[in-house]
Write a structure and sequence with these properties.
Low-confidence stretches: 290-301
Largest sheet: 6 strands, antiparallel, barrel
CATH architecture of one domain: Beta Barrel
Mean pLDDT: 78
Shape: elongated
Distance between the termini: 150 Å
CATH superfamily of one domain: Rod shape-determining protein MreC, domain 1
CATH topology of one domain: Thrombin, subunit H
Radius of gyration: 47 Å
Length: 301
């Protein structure tokens, strides 16, 4: 019974609310019609309109202005995002161009270095090669290049890069060659100090390369102490593996051996053995038999 009463009350409230809204709407329409037909510009109708319609108009104007501002802000934000996307594309394109230019400049510098090295040793025929593999150490003590038997490369050919001697070809395949550099522990080079023409043996030494970036030498006979730090060291004419006169490096330290007859020390190589990308392979192989015959002829009376 109580539920029925509450439902009837709710229906009465809904009906009364509907009628009230209808009545207010009807009254407003009447006032509007009267104002239009009778041209009433003052009186209570104007007062009521001022209280009712003016605040509504203000609210509508304010809402419209806010909506317009938000639309303008949204349009501006969209334009900014589009402009930002265009600028980002330009930045990406310029970054790619800059990277390409840096790589081209780097390659050009490498080629210029090889060209200057080629001009430095004009009497030797050479073939350019690119490094394609190396061992796991930080140093290029042994590595592989992209030239081989198909390019007439043979074991024993000397390899140069940077400003001087890199090493020697130790193994050759159809399209590759393996190089052992002068810093490798197993490498020994007959060399000469240019200031005195004294012969020495240059020994590869990865330990000293890791510590100080130098290799060692031994067997220097310098009774008059004419050899000094900074003197140039090149490959010797008596070497049975290396062509004569190729720059190895500069003496960085000297000390007397325990026998008081010879001296030993260290040499700073001219080649950067941490960064080798291109090399020149000297295609001439030293003819030891010819060298010995020339020395024998020179010794005859």
């Amino acid at each position: 019974m109580s539920r029925f009463r509450s439902r009837s009350r709710n229906k009465k409230k809904q009906i009364s609310t509907k009628y009230l809204l209808f009545i207010m709407t009807f009254v407003c329409l009447v006032f509007i019609v009267l104002g239009l037909t009778l041209n009433i510009s003052g009186g209570p109708l104007k007062t009521i309109a001022g209280y009712v319609f003016v605040p509504m108009q203000r609210g509508i104007n304010l809402a419209g202005n806010n909506l317009s501002l938000k639309m303008n802000d949204f349009r501006t934000l969209s334009e900014v995002l589009e402009e930002n996307a265009r600028l980002q594309e330009q930045v990406d394109e310029l970054t790619v161009e800059l990277t390409t230019l840096k790589l081209e400049r780097y390659e050009l510098e490498n080629y210029r270095e090889l060209f200057e090295l080629n001009e430095k040793y004009p009497s030797y025929e050479k073939v350019a090669a690119n490094v394609i593999a190396k061992d796991t150490s930080n140093w290029f003590d042994t590595f592989t290049v992209d030239r081989g038997k198909n390019d007439s490369i043979t074991v024993g050919m000397n390899v140069i890069a940077g400003s001087g001697l890199v090493g020697i070809v130790t193994d050759v395949g159809p399209n590759y060659a393996k190089i052992r550099s002068i810093i490798d522990d197993s490498c020994k080079v007959s060399a000469m100090v240019t200031s005195t023409q004294d012969n020495i043996i240059v020994n590869g030494n990865l330990q000293t390369m890791n510590v100080n970036g130098v290799i060692t030498f031994s067997g220097l006979r310098d009774e008059d102490n004419l050899v000094h730090i900074g003197d140039q060291v090149v490959t010797s004419y008596v070497s049975d593996q290396y062509q004569q006169g190729i720059l190895i490096g500069y003496i960085s330290s000297i000390e007397a051996d325990s026998n008081d007859l010879t001296k030993s020390g260290t040499i700073t190589p001219v080649v950067d053995f941490e960064h080798i990308e291109e090399v020149l392979i000297i295609t001439d192989v030293k003819d030891v038999d010819k060298l010995l015959s020339e020395e024998e002829e020179a010794s005859l009376p």
